[in-house]
Amino acid sequence: MHSLLKITLLTLLLTSTLLTQGCASRQSQEGNAPFAIMNNLVIAEPLAINFKSEIAIARLSEVINRAQITDEQRAQLFYDRGVLYDSVGLRSLARFDFSHALQLKPNLIDAYNFLGIHYTQLQEFSQAYEKFDSALELAPEHEYAYLNRGIALYYGSRPELASLDFKAFHQQQQDDPYRLLWLYLTEYEIDPLAAKYSLKQRAEQVDDATWAKQVIQLYLGEISQGEFVNGLTKNVRSNKELTERLCEAYFYLGKYNQTLGYRGSAANFFKLALSTNVYEFVEHRYAKLELDLMRTTTATKTQP
Q1: Rounded to whole angstroms, how far apart are CA atoms 257 and 265?
Q2: Is-contact 273 252, C-beta < 8 A?
Q3: How far apart are CA 194 and CA 188, in angstroms?
Q4: Using one digit for the tens of pLDDT, what is the confidence trace for 214-265?
Q5: In Å, how far are 1, 124, 242, 263, 286 from 298, measured between CA atoms?
Q6: What's this model's pTM, rounded to 2 decimal places?
Q7: What is the rounded distance in angstroms from the CA atom of residue 148 to the CA atom of residue 140?
Q8: In 10 A of CB 118, how many CB atoms?
Q9: What are phi and psi of 241, to 5 degrees?
């Protein structure tokens, strides 16, 4: 009953936003205007927290509190528990454990990376840069530190520097559509036309069978929003797979609608991404930050 109510409220929320787009939206090309996708909108059933993660957290806590182990071993246990806390959305507890792990073992590279992600989500960008820099000093080939530092620089309004990190990340696997998308989003902030041209060129290396190729096609204007939504359930074999796909899809639909100037629709797509509870996905992490930044922008514009 709770899930049904949540789904109903989310649908009504998105409907109300799309209806307020007004006559200007109705003059858009069919399939591109946000209201046009409502009839075929797919809603995810939120992922439940894995009970195995809860049990693992309890067991790790018992070992940390009672076992006679070395500081290095305890640091690893704090890190492992932090990863589990993060996977179930308990961000503050995760940050506490990552920080504690680094106090015991200052060269724990992945703990720096996770803390950088969390500081980015909190908009504490200076601390985020510091953590990612520390990770890369210890492991210059840590490719995901480049991704995450690039994201921090992107949200910290430093797109030129962000693009350098995303290019380094993209070079490691040029057929990965997600690496390409983050590079595109950053380059779009610098030069939209050049970004779209580069996206088209680089997209040739992405396999057409990869579902995320549809996101690229949407951004290039090769398919409409309606066509994109209609393809979301293609080759999906489980609710988990569908929920994860929708988390990604709604985030990128939110970013796409931002570029069209449909702020209300963009915000609701970010909310739909959050509603999936896929806490570990990059798209879920930054959907909340997108909403926070949109609220800040709105509040700034309404100040006298």
Answers
A1: 7
A2: no
A3: 8
A4: 999 999 999 999 999 999 998 888 999 999 999 999 999 999 999 999 999 9
A5: 34, 20, 33, 10, 18
A6: 0.84
A7: 14
A8: 21
A9: -65, -40
Q: Which residue has the tokens 């806590």?
A: 61
Q: How far apart are CA 134 and CA 129, in angstroms?
A: 9
> What is the Cα–Cα distance from 131 to 116, expressed in whole angstroms?
5
> Residue 102 corresponds to which tokens in the numbers above?
């680094």
Sign of the alpha-carbon dihedral angle for 251, 252, 254, 258 = positive
For 121-152, how does the pLDDT look when each residue is reduced to its tens digit (9 = 90+)?
A: 999 999 999 999 999 999 999 999 999 999 99
- Cβ partners under 8 Å of residue 214, min gap 6: 223, 228, 231
Give me the pLDDT at residue 1, please. 40
Query: Counting beta carbons within 10 angstroms of the beta carbon of residue 227, is it exposed (0 to 12), middle (13 to 18) or buried (19 or more)?
Result: middle
Residue with tokens 């990552």: 98
- pLDDT reading at 14 higher than 50: no
**Mean pLDDT of the region 153-170:** 97
Residues 224, 254: Cα–Cα separation, whole Å: 14
Reading the block at residue 43, the tokens are 């809603």
Per the model's pLDDT, the better-predicted residue between 40 and 48 turns out to be 48
Dmax over CA atoms of the chain, in Å, equals 70
